[in-house]
Design a protein that fits this description.
It is a single chain. The protein has helices at about 40-45, 50, 70-80, 90-100, 120-130, 165-170, 170-175, 185-195, 205-215, 265-275, 325-335, and strands spanning about 1-5, 15, 20, 60-65, 85-90, 105-115, 115-120, 130-140, 145, 160, 180, 200-205, 215-220, 230-235, 250-260, 280-285, 295, 310, 310-320, 335-345. It is an alpha/beta fold and about 350 residues long. Among the domains are: about 145-220, 3-Layer(aba) Sandwich (D-Maltodextrin-Binding Protein, domain 2), CATH 3.40.190; about 240-345, ACT domain (Alpha-Beta Plaits, 2-Layer Sandwich), CATH 3.30.70.260. The strands form 5 sheets. A 6-stranded mixed β-sheet has the order 1-11-10-12-9-13. Strands 4, 5, 6, 7, 8 and 14 form a 6-stranded mixed β-sheet that branches. It has a 4-stranded antiparallel β-sheet with strand order 16-19-15-20, sandwiched between helices. A hairpin with a 3-residue loop joins strand 6 (about 105-115) and strand 7 (about 115-120). Helix 8 runs parallel beside helix 9 and helix 10 packs antiparallel against helix 11. The longest helix is centred in the middle third of the chain and has 11 residues, at about 185-195. The protein is globular.
Length: about 350
């Protein structure tokens, strides 16, 4: 049984046809009244003299992530942005907002998991916030069963964790015969058990969460399938552009687009990559919330007549925009698309 718990430098725009693929980043006011933690653009910028004065412990910047210290997202943020100070955020949208409002220099967020699939909330926010993907990193998920010191596995009546972690350990917890309770994030569940001294509860979280919150590791590697990898993307306010001398296959490009109506239009859109031997690594569709229905009559507040659903398509492909082959594919795609935006063209993570 599952119960839920709610806790208290800019590049020149690339234009294809009528579509601006790298829209200019909107100007953000330096006076941000929303939160005292949000700092102005000018305070984030550095000049040559300030860089020279940085000591050995100085941070390169701030990177936002969703969760609390000990979350897998914190590991991803530190892995993708070494030398940056980490900024924990309660929700995905707060991490996006922190970057947009200059409280952070980068944000690292999960987009897909080898077992759980796509993180739809993040894809929707990628469209809402006009930020840019400038990198990626992969994190191997090693789930642990954590409890207070002195608590044994037989004492556990309830297991708390993020919904995806619960899904990834479903067979393990089923054999335990416990109640599975959803929580905002894995490390947050561990933190709450430690703070509230819940002796009949365990958390599914990382080994680092056990160290941070003083919990014992009752079992390790409890995911039902061992090939549990999460892909994270690194976001920035400005896009990154590759040099023409860099191998295109060491880059990945992420785009979002919507299509004109017509028979076979999705096939035609995908064929622009196949005809050029460009490998797709990801395709995802999400509802176009601003206009979710095609050809619908909404008289009397009801959809009448024949209509279909309107979608945005997200695609990742191997290749950088410094490669003429990739640029030609996007020019060809422009013939079938109502809208195209390049979310980012960035180095692939080939080390993890």
């Amino acid at each position: 049984m599952i119960v839920s718990y709610n806790r208290q430098c800019c590049a020149t725009p690339l234009v294809l046809g009528s579509h601006c693929l790298f829209p200019n980043v909107p100007v953000v006011s330096q006076k941000l009244s929303r939160s005292k933690s949000l700092v102005s653009k000018s305070s984030m910028q550095s000049n040559d003299s300030s860089v020279q004065d940085m000591g050995p412990d100085a941070k390169m910047g701030v990177v936002a992530y969703q969760g609390v210290p000990g979350a897998y997202s914190e590991l991803a943020a530190s892995q993708a942005c070494p030398g940056y100070e980490t900024l924990p955020c309660e929700q995905f949208d707060i991490a996006f907002e922190s970057l947009s409002q200059w409280a952070a220099d980068k944000a690292v967020l999960p987009v897909e998991n080898s077992l759980g699939g796509s993180i739809h909330a993040v894809y929707d926010l990628l469209h809402k916030y006009k930020l840019h993907i400038v990198g990626e990193t992969f994190v191997a998920v090693d789930h642990c069963l954590l409890a207070l010191p002195g608590v044994e596995k037989k004492d556990i009546r309830k297991v708390l964790s993020h919904p995806q972690a619960l899904a990834q350990t479903q067979e393990y917890t089923r054999k335990m015969g416990v109640i599975r309770q959803e929580y905002d994030d894995t490390a947050g569940a561990a933190k709450m058990i430690a703070e509230c001294q819940l002796k009949d509860c365990a958390a599914i979280a990382s080994i680092r969460a056990s160290e941070l919150y003083g919990l014992n590791v009752l079992d390790r590697g409890i995911q039902d399938t061992k090939g549990n990898i999460t892909r994270f993307v690194v976001l920035s306010r400005d896009p990154t552009m590759a040099l023409g001398t860099q191998p295109s296959d060491e880059y990945k490009t992420s785009i979002v687009f919507s299509l004109n109506e017509g028979p076979g239009v999705l096939f035609k859109a995908l064929s622009v990559f196949a005809l050029r031997d460009i490998s797709l690594t990801k395709i995802e569709s999400r509802p176009l919330r601003a206009s979710p229905l095609l050809s619908a009559d909404f008289s009397d507040n009801e959809a009448k007549g024949s209509f279909g659903f309107n979608y945005l398509f997200y695609i990742d492909f191997i290749g950088g925009l410094h490669d003429e082959n990739a640029k030609n594919a996007l020019r060809n795609l422009d013939e079938y698309a109502k809208f195209i935006r390049v979310i980012g063209s960035y180095p692939r993570d080939l080390d993890h």
